[in-house]
Specification:
This protein is α/β, with parallel strands linked by helices and 534 residues long. It is built from 17 helices and 18 strands. Helix 10 runs parallel beside helix 11. The structure holds adenosine-5'-triphosphate and magnesium ion (MG).
């Protein structure tokens, strides 16, 4: 099979002080359509640019490994040039201000970097041809501004996670389209990996050391990073996982288009959110809970006052009246209540939030005693959303009712809608689906027992979604607003058709979708007409 290479753009070229052309790379986020893998895996051979024109991803069948692998391909440089690169890097270390490197935009940084490289080259009296100069600049950029060997993967739209399990073991990635793949990146030296983890910590504004070997933070681009620094915590030496942040937040339209959930389920959740009902998104690890929660936040009315609380910043919406808060680690020995000095927990933040009388409260991930405050908030009429780790509604209720959370059933009943996400990995295919949308009716006295109504359900055999006619939530909305069930169903139909029209027209950007939903709140008829819906 022929290699599938995607062409890149070139920027205009102007000379620098050393007579080389200005270094240019294409850092625009790319979305490249990748083919589905055919039945014969041995024929797989796909190549696409990550940092054009220097770094490429090459996904192919490796006959030795008997599996599909992911190689990062970068320019080769000669031994002499490697030495020169080392000299330039040493010179730069003396000249460059790290805090500047951390804070400025890419193009400003590139210019600054190139100026310094120019002076070093002149000082060294080194003359290099243009092609070599570009390659050297690439590596300098990659290691000074970027994340070293991992930088090309950070630029790969299709990578979800980057996982390093220690020295001498290949780094694995989770690919959106082709699931788990082994890469050609292996850390050979302990020092190299430890230095890299220090870099991750520094970029996340955290501190790691042998005394504090665990890192949990957010990188400047929003990606989440977890790492262990010393050998005694994990036996294979330092490790790290980077959960990449989707730069452009996903909208419901992305999830309609990739068949995660049907437009009708989003229309239903939209109505529930507008009617100030409480929604929880649940699922196993990495099933897509946070992503799903972020998409449905687009349905919050544009003027509402929103407060969100998270351990690490993942949620991303553009409502003007949004107050995002993040917990803070403390330090020192925990006091009698188990808290360290300066620590700010979800519980603290949530108590504070309800005092500020928000229209909507969002807790990124509900885990412990903050659940009590959250459910009290829900019960007292503050619509709240959050994610929770549980594979199904029964498990959710059982976990909420038992230690350490211990919620009474009556409080759990304030929850109106539960969305269940699943992630299936099979035969190199990774699929995420909204498994169910469940309406909570009554929580019984018996532990873990509830009455509920599954409004939407994914049917795996034909990859379709089944919908119920009768809805408990619609009755609630009818009681609250005085609209008849018929009127609510009509409204649901209109919104479904609108979301379908957006999906058909491929209108999925965060900006556009936010604008259309916001206009719908002000002038629904106008928006429907614009999309030809009667
Ligand atoms: N519907 C989807 N379709 C395709 N990819 C998705 C979908 N939802 C999430 N992803 C991708 O899956 C990865 C995990 O998603 P996410 O962080 O939302 O999961 P999570 O359930 O919140 O994980 P955790 O348990 O770690 O909190 C992300 O890289 C995300 O981009
Ligand atoms: Mg999550």
């Amino acid at each position: 099979m022929a290699e599938e290479t995607v062409k890149e753009d070139k920027s205009p070229i102007t000379p620098t002080e050393t007579g080389n052309s200005i270094f240019s790379i294409d850092l625009r986020p790319k979305f490249i359509e990748l083919p589905k893998l055919g039945d014969d895996k041995t024929k797989v051979n796909i190549r696409y640019p990550l940092i054009a024109p220097f770094a490429f991803a090459h996904i192919y069948w490796d006959d030795k490994e008997k599996s599909i692998v992911y190689d990062v391909e970068e320019p080769k440089i000669s031994e002499t040039d490697t030495k020169l690169l080392k000299l330039i890097k040493m010179g730069l270390e003396e000249m460059i201000n790290i805090s500047f490197v951390k804070s400025k935009k890419h193009n400003v940084l590139l210019e600054y970097l190139e100026k310094n490289v120019q002076s070093i080259l002149i000082e060294l009296g080194a003359k290099v041809d243009d092609a070599t100069y570009q390659k050297l600049m690439y590596y300098i950029y990659r290691d000074a501004v970027g994340f070293n060997d991992v930088e090309p993967m950070m630029m790969d739209y299709y990578i979800e996670d980057i996982e390093c399990n220690g020295v001498g073991f290949p780094v694995y990635i989770v690919h959106r389209k082709y699931a788990n793949l082994k890469t050609n990146l292996v850390y050979k030296e302990l020092k190299e990996l430890a230095d890299f983890i220090e870099k991750l910590a520094q970029r996340a504004g955290r501190y790691v050391s042998y005394a504090r070997p665990l890192l949990d933070g957010t990188l400047p681009d929003g990606s989440r990073v977890n790492a262990t620094y010393s050998e005694d915590v994990t036996t294979r030496g330092p490790t790290y996982t980077i959960r990449k942040f989707t730069k452009e937040p996903w909208t419901p339209i992305h999830l309609i288009r990739n068949n995660t959930a049907p437009a009708s389920s989003f229309a239903f959740i939209w109505l529930a959110i507008e009617s100030k009902l409480n929604v929880m998104v649940i699922g196993e690890t990495a099933s897509g809970k946070t992503t799903f929660l972020n998409t449905i936040l687009h349905f919050i009315p544009p003027e509402a006052r929103i407060c969100s609380i998270e351990d690490t910043r993942e949620l991303n919406i553009s409502h003007d009246n949004w107050l995002p808060a993040v917990t803070r680690e403390g330090f020192g020995i925990p006091n009698i209540a188990g808290k360290t000095y300066g620590e700010v927990t979800l519980f603290d933040l949530l108590k504070e939030t309800f005092r500020q009388n928000p229209d909507y409260v969002i807790v990124g991930e509900v885990r412990g005693n903050e659940a009590y405050v959250l459910f009290q908030g829900m019960a007292s009429g503050h619509p709240s959303f959050g994610t929770f780790h549980a594979g199904g509604v029964e498990t959710l209720v059982r976990r909420l009712e038992t230690p350490p959370i211990n919620l009474p059933g009556t409080l759990i009943e304030s929850l109106d809608v539960v969305c269940v996400c699943i992630h299936l990995k099979e035969k190199r295919k990774s699929i995420r689906r909204l498994k169910q949308v469940v309406e909570i009716m009554e929580v019984s006295q018996e532990l873990g027992k509830i009455d509920s109504n599954v409004m939407f359900e994914w049917v795996p055999t034909d990859d379709e979604f089944a919908t119920k006619e009768d809805s408990y939530v619609m009755k609630k909305i009818s009681d609250r607003t005085g609209q008849s069930i018929e009127e609510i169903k009509e409204e649901l139909e209109k919104r479904t058709r609108l979301l379908e029209a957006l999906a058909d027209k491929n209108i999925l950007s965060h900006k556009e979708v936010t604008k259309i939903i916001s206009s719908y709140y002000k002038n629904p008829q106008g928006v429907l007409e614009e999309f030809g819906i009667k």
